[in-house]
């Protein structure tokens, strides 16, 4: 086999994969592309070693990292800064918005963070302390006026919510062996650990934030003052559950579109198991497009399962609404600091990261909340 020809074939395929990955949204395909990239890069490195031996030149491994928004030179500089122990800042959209980073270290083979955190409305407010958002509760109705009489007042009713600054922190440890990697994959591994941990906490807070000091006001919080409608109470999942949720959401004049059902994975399974008397499935669930009869869904483990007998009565189990009705302002970049002192004997490098952010429901009755009702 001609090594130079094969190397060119690999490089052409890597370029093709990068172009495909930029347009691809399916997680499974992105994962397959990443695995193929890793395999091709390993093969290319082997070929380069063989070519190096044949030419007796010093071999320098080439490591390619896919990273949107920054050049390789900028990433290399950041990686060097991390290795040298300098505190660095990371733009909020690199941590809190979805991205694809190809590295050389095997990752967890399943999703650890709900896509909920990617789909709410993120607002960049660097340097802010609090964020107030006004919303309209209702509009007035015009009247029929006799000649010479006063016009009917139709002032809209307003409300507002406040998003206070919340400090979200993360701590991670990496072995000193990783420091021997080139700067690009080294910084990618550090940022990946920070990324996942911060996004996990933000995902939990979007639903379960208590609305007290240093917490988000979550969709399930009683302090979300934009949500005034009574929660829908359901005792279980049957063939009418999805319709009950859809028709309970929104106003009296329309069945609202553009809403998303947030639920536990076990409840999705319960929907999938429903059968008619003839044995046919009640719902058509598209796992690729993530829809139930065309209604988009998001799985989040911080929802209790309505179908689980261990879930207590009056526990929030689902939410249904337009995700743009929840806003997450970003008050600061993510700051990462490094220390080798704490576990010096063990050869462990420690990192801490923090970001100031927050969250609240900003649309009046923008979500229908579902509680578990007593089965009796």
Outline:
The chain is 30% helix and 23% strand.
Q: What is the CATH top level name of the largest domain?
A: Alpha Beta
Q: Order of strands side by side in the largest beta sheet?
A: 6-16-11-7-10-9-8
Number of helices: 8
Rg calc: 26 Å
The CATH architecture of the largest domain can be named as 2-Layer Sandwich
What is the CATH third-level topology name of the largest domain?
Major capsid protein gp5 fold
Which structural class best describes the helix and strand composition? alpha+beta
Helical fraction: 25-40%
Low-pLDDT residue intervals, each spanning 5 or more residues = 56-68, 98-105
Number of strands: 16
Query: What's the main sheet like?
Result: 7 strands, mixed
Assign the CATH superfamily of the largest domain. Major capsid protein gp5
* Secondary-structure element series: HHHEHHEEEEHEHEHEEEEEEEEE
Large-scale geometry: globular
CA-CA gap between termini: 73 Å
Mean pLDDT figure = 82
Please state roughly what percent of the residues sit in beta strands, choosing from under 5%, 5-15%, 15-25%, 25-35%, 35-45% or over 45%. Answer: 15-25%
How many structural domains are formed by the residues?
Answer: 2
Topology:
Blueprint: H1 3-23, H2 27-55, H3 72-83, E1 88-90, H4 92-95, H5 116-119, E2 121-124, E3 130-138, E4 157-164, E5 166-175, H6 183-208, E6 232-234, H7 241-248, E7 260-263, H8 265-273, E8 285-286, E9 291-292, E10 295-299, E11 316-321, E12 326-330, E13 334-339, E14 348-357, E15 360-361, E16 367-372
Parallel strand pairs: 2-12, 6-16, 7-10
Antiparallel strand pairs: 1-13, 3-4, 5-14, 7-11, 8-9, 9-10, 11-16, 12-15, 13-14
């Amino acid at each position: 086999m001609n090594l130079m020809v094969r190397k060119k074939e690999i490089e052409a395929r890597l370029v093709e994969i990068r172009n495909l990955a930029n347009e691809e949204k399916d997680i499974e395909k992105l994962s397959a592309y990443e695995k193929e990239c890793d395999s091709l890069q390993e093969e290319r490195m082997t070929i380069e070693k063989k070519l190096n031996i044949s030419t007796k030149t010093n071999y320098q491994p080439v490591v390619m990292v896919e990273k949107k928004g920054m050049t390789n030179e900028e990433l290399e500089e950041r990686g060097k800064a991390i290795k040298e122990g300098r505190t660095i800042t990371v733009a909020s959209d690199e941590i809190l918005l979805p991205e694809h980073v190809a590295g050389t270290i095997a990752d967890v083979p399943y999703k650890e963070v709900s896509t909920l955190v990617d789909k709410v409305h993120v607002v960049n407010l660097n340097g802010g302390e609090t964020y107030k958002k006004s919303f309209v509760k209702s509009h007035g109705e015009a009247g029929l006026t006799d000649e010479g009489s006063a016009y009917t007042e139709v002032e809209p009713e307003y409300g507002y919510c406040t998003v206070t600054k919340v400090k979200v922190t993360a701590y991670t440890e990496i072995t000193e062996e990783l420091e021997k990697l080139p700067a690009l994959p080294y910084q990618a591994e550090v940022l990946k650990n920070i990324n996942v941990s911060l996004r996990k906490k933000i995902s939990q807070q979007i639903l379960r934030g208590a609305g007290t000091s240093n917490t988000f006001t979550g969709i399930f919080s009683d302090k979300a003052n934009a949500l005034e409608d009574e929660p829908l109470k359901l005792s279980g999942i049957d063939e009418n559950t999805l319709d009950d949720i859809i028709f309970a959401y929104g106003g009296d004049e329309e069945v609202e579109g553009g809403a998303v059902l947030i639920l536990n994975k076990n409840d999705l399974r319960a929907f999938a198991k429903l059968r008619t008397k003839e044995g046919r499935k009640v719902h058509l669930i598209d796992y690729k497009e993530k829809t139930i009869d065309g209604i988009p869904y998001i799985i989040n483990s911080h929802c209790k399962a309505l179908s689980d007998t261990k879930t207590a009565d009056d526990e929030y189990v689902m939410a249904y609404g337009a995700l743009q009705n929840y806003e997450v302002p970003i008050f600061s970049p993510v700051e990462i600091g490094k220390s080798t002192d704490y576990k010096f004997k063990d050869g462990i490098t420690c990192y801490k990261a923090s970001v100031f952010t927050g969250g609240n429901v900003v649309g009046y009755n923008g979500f229908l909340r579902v509680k578990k009702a007593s089965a009796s």
